[in-house]
Amino acid sequence: MGRMVRTSLASVKHVSVTKSPPHPTEESGFLRDPEVQLMLRAKNDDDEAFSQLVTAYQDRLIAIFYHIVGSQEAAEDLAQEVFLRIYRARHGYEPTARFSTWLFRIANNLASNTRRDQGRRKEVSLASQDSGPHTLRNADKLPADKSSLMPTRQVDKRELQMLVQQALSTLNERQRMAVLLHKFEDMSYQDIAEAMEMTPTAVKSLLSRARENLRQVLEPHMQLGK
């Protein structure tokens, strides 16, 4: 974890900064976000504050990218690129959203650009993958959330996690990103809409279709609860 922090800082010390459009911030409610405060410190060249943000989001970004591109190495490279972009843009940063929303907007755009540049990647099976940095937080809550589905037999957390990962791999990229942000990052429809540059209504529809697709995949392993 520390390696990426040091690499991120060392890699951008002499890179020119791209500033974002200015926005008024004095009355912004987002100033109460502790991570926004860290980013404002990073804006003033506080490298320790930036390192805290990297530590907080590094593994979470890798997990999301892993489930988008299907490669641990590529996921780590993409997460590194997100932090590099944030560091380069730090002097132009203005808190117009929660920090997490802003970060995942950058991640979503980067993932979209990667898919356009490299074409659609062949889906990979997740069944044989070991637990590691790409393991999703709260992966065991998806089947039971807003559903009457229950396991047909006792399964341990690891097995359930694998089932969820396999189900996620069947979704298209936009559905997968929306599910990852909503279920595993606990983001609201509004925050997902901002991150994915959609309307909240479109996000709700996207998630509804994704849940139905997940249900169809998971149903062979589930039974209706009483």
Short structural description:
This protein has 9 helices and 2 strands, in the order αααααβααααβ. With 226 residues, it is mainly alpha-helical.
Helix and strand succession?
Answer: HHHHHEHHHHE
Residue share in helices? 55-70%
What is the level-2 CATH architecture name of the largest domain?
Orthogonal Bundle
Largest sheet: spatial strand order = 1-2
On the 0-100 scale, what is the average pLDDT? 75
Question: Would you kindly provide a written description of the structure presented here, covering whatever features stand out?
Answer:
The chain is mainly α and 226 residues long. It has 2 domains: 31-118, Rna Polymerase Sigma Factor, Chain: A, CATH 1.10.1740.10; 139-224, Arc Repressor Mutant, subunit A (Orthogonal Bundle). Helices cover 58% and strands 3% of the residues. It is built from 9 helices and 2 strands; from the N terminus they run H-H-H-H-H-E-H-H-H-H-E. The model is unreliable at 5-27, 120-134 and 140-154 (pLDDT under 50).
